Automatic annotation (TrEMBL), chains A, B, C, D, E:
InterPro entries: CorA_cytoplasmic_dom (IPR045861), CorA_TM1_TM2 (IPR045863), Mg/Co-transport_prot_CorA (IPR004488), MgTranspt_CorA/ZnTranspt_ZntB (IPR002523). This is Magnesium transport protein CorA. One of its GO terms (molecular function) is magnesium ion transmembrane transporter activity. GO terms for cellular component: plasma membrane. Belongs to the CorA metal ion transporter (MIT) (TC 1.A.35) family. Keywords: Cell membrane, Ion transport, Magnesium, Membrane, Transmembrane, Transmembrane helix, Transport. Mediates influx of magnesium ions. Its main location: membrane. CDD domains: TmCorA-like_1. The gene is corA_2. It is found in: Cell membrane; Membrane. NCBIfam families: corA.
């Protein structure tokens, strides 16, 4: 989760470090204005020329980086700064927004639940210009489909706005993806609330630890994304209009809200850990009480039995007829006294 | 407490996500100036036209969001920005103040104690313009009644001021609602102060944990509200006059004060948790001491009895007349020595 | 310590909430210039007219708020803003400085040790104008006597300065009152330093907890007072001259210093709590060691005695003449071996 | 790791404090422009005159400070401020950037893994002017070789840029060196994740403590370096061009990212410590359970056996034929009851 | 360490509070320019007139405050503001820099190790004007000797600079004094690193606590000094030249560095405390294991011996010839089984 692919130390800035298992790039382009929309997979990079048509908005989506030369081709075609290109490919980057003159880079981290309910994450880099938007995703997948559907549907603002609005819509969709992940963690916390008291095993603590680390991670990403959105909002380039700022403010406040939920869950996880620790201490206490009760009752009795098991020649009690029942009585009395003492201490109830 | 209703991921901004169990909207309108006051439930949205009369102040109060088309109608009538409308309905939002040109949105979170003394919370959104105030409440209920009474009473400043003062009065009433909730928690803390030492059960720790989570929540809301009020105070629109600023400063300082009390209670709860942990450790210690005392006294005695229970042929002591009483003496001496040792250690007192 | 008297929710701003047990107001006025000084209790509010004489400085001191109409009379006479009047009476307020055009409100919290050495606190509100100073104290008492004495003494700067200097002198005296309270806590910490190791009882932990809560409280007040003094210093009204600013800076630095001492004591208290926890753990350890030593020595010996207490017909050892002393020897050897083992482990020393 | 060589207290500013074991300085100079490159070790300081040739960029690299007079010679030749010279030599300095008119000092801390995988660190000071760059390294070694190779290779931007770009390339290479060190720590954390539960020894805790201290150290350096890079970026001297700022921003974001990873690892280490503590508590619990089970089963049985070992004359049971087997039965029943009780408590499973 | 001498509450600002044991003041004056230097103890305050000679720099050093009238004489002669004079004498003050028109006050705290290696501290106040520097030390002693030597030596910058440089040199010398104190603590931490595991006594924890409190103290002083130096640097009076600012920046960075070392040591001390707690828990664990092993082995055997010690008439085993050795065998087998069980659990190794 924290490992970073990176070029060897001291490599030239802009060196791309593509891991072997990176999937083959798949490119997809949508061009639209409020009247029409073209939506095609791209086989040949040359087709991307169309993105430069200033009368429409173009969205070029690249999934997977497994082809170094293609990446360089894209970099050349769209005049991407070498450092910008490096940030797209050398994942993970910290979420951030950076201004490259007439282009803007927004790096965000998308999270989703896989089929087992485990959260996984992927970097999405959004390059934003006046007329087109480039998105670069680490893996194949159709997480941006809702945006495509809205584009195809043609309703709402999205088809009447320029490229920056599209970039916003994409970023907003990605931030929205944090809600279900946080909700799943919230449910897990609810489930564990009972378990930490009834079954406090070290493995459970490890699970809580993992959850806490995940939450720290999520909050960190959200915090960085909050900053990135803020950078966008404060940017004085012409790309960001006042109208768009209102929408970005909305995304900003989603970031803050989800970050606060993540923080709150982290604190609740810490609370569960303390409860766990306390449950272990209580269990030890309970075990000790059983031992103490058993030993305190029977050790004196055994001593008494031991007394009359001695073989002294002159032990007058041994020859008294009612001595044996008397000893039994004494024993019951002793045991009763001990039990009474423990009862008064409240140790015979199960819960203290 | 932390769950958020929200539209599906990637939905168009402004999409309203209304849960099934949301109550039917009830609309109520008050229009007033310093001479007269009209106070009527509203059956037909068209009646709300009156709110636009610039010679009076209008307060439109909507309780419950269970009718999507009505919400859209209201949105259209009052020219609410789609994102503003979304924030009203898609609860919970983080408390905030946002400026939409000639309208201002103030989202606050109202808390109250229900009949069982459990705190519950509800979002109240206040839309503020020069001539009217809209309030949107999540649930039915009459928590803003004190403001209505003051309006009807007609005394004081409220009937002589414009809409922004009304909005302030509403927000101030809601912040006031935090005091009794915090006071109830303060009383619970006082109650638990004794209990954590005398009855440290894991359930108690869970209760403390819950209380801490609630306090963190309250402080977070208050903090966000503090920021929101501050945003209002710093706003340079004509809605906020210097005279109103003095009142907002008062509300601001209530937010700070309640947030500090919440923080202080949170620290006291943490202190109780530590006391709890210590009480458990002390209990284990006490249990151990009983065991140690019992075992240390009787195990040596049993050993002694065991010695003279051996069946060796040549054990001269067995045949000595005063041996049996001598053994008893030795036993008492041993037990006494042990007790003396424990006494010196201070283990026989109950408290250490 | 944290409870707040307040009007019912939603009450009109400026509503005074006076508790039943509030003492009757006692009013006292001093008017002075560098030549003369009048010092009289005030029976009739009308006498306060003299405070408006611009050739002298007037100090009106009100102790106790138990008369609502009198408070309103005072409010009217001195043109106090309703919110200002509310802040005077509805204690406790958070320490703060607020600017009301030609008046300035400084709310501070005075602490003192009562006869039992317990700290208690009281709100003092100072209303400061060019020609007079109003002080409002929650309870009767003569804590501002040192200032009165300085006035009567007539030495020093105080008789040659205007009202703001008097207000400074009062605030400074109140901040000075934190030193002995902190010193008393410091001495208590020194006392407990030893006790936490020798007598770690849960009650002690509760006492530490209380102390910590008190320190948190004190630091919070001092911090708020620091801010309030800072607000005064930064105020650009004509009330605060450059000369006075130098004096306020001194008070400011006293606030910082006492706040830091309070913070340091809080950390020391936390340290004592950790020592306490450790002392409890060590005690358990010690108890366990005694048990382990006793049990480990005598249980094997008892077993040996048990062996030769069996009634088998064919146990050749029983009939050997030196068997009995041999068993004693074996027992001593076993016990010696165990003791040697514990000695090597260092368990026979008393300390850990 | 934290020790600082420093001149004696009160020494003149600029006093060099060179430890005895400091290695002999080795000087190496590279001069280049986009067409040619000279790369030679420097035997005589006079050769360094070439660095002042304004048509090329010169890089003078000094490794080791073990020659005071040479250091002073260098200081004189390059007009280094006495304080600057002191900072170069009196290691360790906190990473920082300082502006000395036409020179800029950038102190960074380089970390690397030695052959045993232990991280060690070294101060590298970079003096940056328009035409030359001086680097001062604490020890011999070729950690800046990647930069030299890039220079010799002659590809990329580096040969076409001025000295500030070279300084950037050096600093960037050094920051890059934190990745493998953090990765090694990350792997160690993964390894320990299992071990803390299965083998919680105090030595392990010490190792975790060491790791945490190292991480705190790394984060601190990175944080200071982040500030230093920021100082460079914000510097308004002519040395830092807008083009260079883009590159510095990249280095800045690497600092932030590595600092966050270090912080995250620190939190994970704290998590491991908690798991460790819990594992110890669980072990004690398990030990106690074995003791309690054994003792609770056999102590009552021994008592029963003791009863019938008593020597009373009148014990009717002793003479009943089926009494002995009956006692065995009673014993099995008792033991079974106890086992059943423990089973119900869940103490017979191994885990908790 | 934290006690503050202070005038009684409400005393006139500027009241000097001199404790009885304060040493007699010793005054010493050095006047110099780059050509000559006069260095004499001062018997009569009138001699100090020479300090006002604007052609030389004068340094008046006062050690000990035990003479109130002398302090007032000095105050009058050098036109010290009453509050400034109060700050000099009423130690301890928080380190700070304050601007009094043509004078500047710099309060710093000097630390040093006494002969037992215990750190002690003393306030040094530096009053800085254009032509002279006054220093006020709490106790006699020659800690500023290095500066005097540098003055007498006459080398370096110091004799060519004005009074502010002298003040800098004094402050820098005092900050330098923190290094050996921190180093001594660092060595103590190294020593304790081993001891906390092998000998975890409560006294050790107390020692760690003391160390932590000392470190918190040191960091606080350094932090305040950092602020004070910063205040000086940012001061726009003519006293602070650009050239001097470079030197102050150096002192500033020393403050930051030492404060960070103090913070790091504090964290390491906290780490040691955790290790200590863990070591205690491990010891308890070890004690428990010994008990459990001994008891689990011998209690069943004793039971077995008890069985055949019963006196039933009909116990066929008693009369079987090989029964006795058979019982021994059974006992060995049982003991072996238990040992095997503990071996598998890993409890027979010594390490947890």
């Amino acid at each position: 989760m924290f490992r970073k692919r990176r070029p060897r130390i001291g490599a030239r800035p802009g060196t791309l470090s593509i891991p072997r298992q990176a999937p083959e790039p798949k490119i997809h382009m949508i061009t639209y204005d409020h009247q029409q929309l073209h939506d095609t997979p791209v086989e040949d990079v040359a087709e991307l020329e169309r993105a430069f048509d200033t009368s429409t908005v173009a969205w070029v989506d690249v999934q997977g980086f497994g082809d170094r030369s293609l990446m360089h081709q894209l970099g050349d075609m769209f005049h991407l700064h070498p450092l910008l290109l490096e940030d797209l490919v050398n994942v993970p980057q910290r979420p951030k927004a950076e201004d490259y003159d007439d282009q803007m880079l927004l790096v965000v981290r998308m999270v989703s639940l896989d089929d087992d309910g485990e959260p996984n994450s992927e970097q999405v880099s959004i390059v934003l210009t006046e007329h087109y938007v480039l998105t670069f995703q680490e893996k194949h997948g159709d997480i941006l489909d809702p945006v495509r559907k809205r584009l195809r549907g043609g309703k709402g603002l999205i088809r009447h706005q320029r490229a920056p609005y599209l970039a916003y819509a994409i970023a907003d969709t990605i931030i929205d993806g944090y809600y279900p992940v946080l909700e799943a963690i919230g449910e897990e916390i609810d489930d564990l609330d009972e378990v930490v008291i009834t079954q406090p095993t070290p493995d459970l603590l490890r699970r809580l630890n993992d959850m806490k680390n995940r939450l720290v991670m999520l909050r960190r990403w959200l915090w960085a994304q909050r900053e990135a959105i803020n950078t966008l909002m404060r940017d004085d380039s012409e790309l960001i209009t006042d109208e768009l700022r209102v929408f970005l403010r909305d995304t900003y406040s989603h970031c803050v809200q989800t970050a606060e939920v993540a923080e709150m869950y982290r604190e609740m996880t810490t609370g569960l850990m303390n409860t766990y620790m306390s449950a272990v201490a209580n269990r030890t206490n309970e075990v000790m009480k059983v031992l103490t009760i058993m030993a305190s009752i029977f050790i004196p009795l055994t001593f008494l039995a031991g007394i009359y098991g001695m073989n002294f020649e002159y032990m007058p009690e041994l020859h008294v007829r009612w001595a044996y029942p008397a000893v039994w009585c004494a024993m019951f009395a002793t045991a009763g006294a001990m039990l009474g003492y423990f009862w008064r201490k409240g140790w015979l109830g199960g819960d203290g």
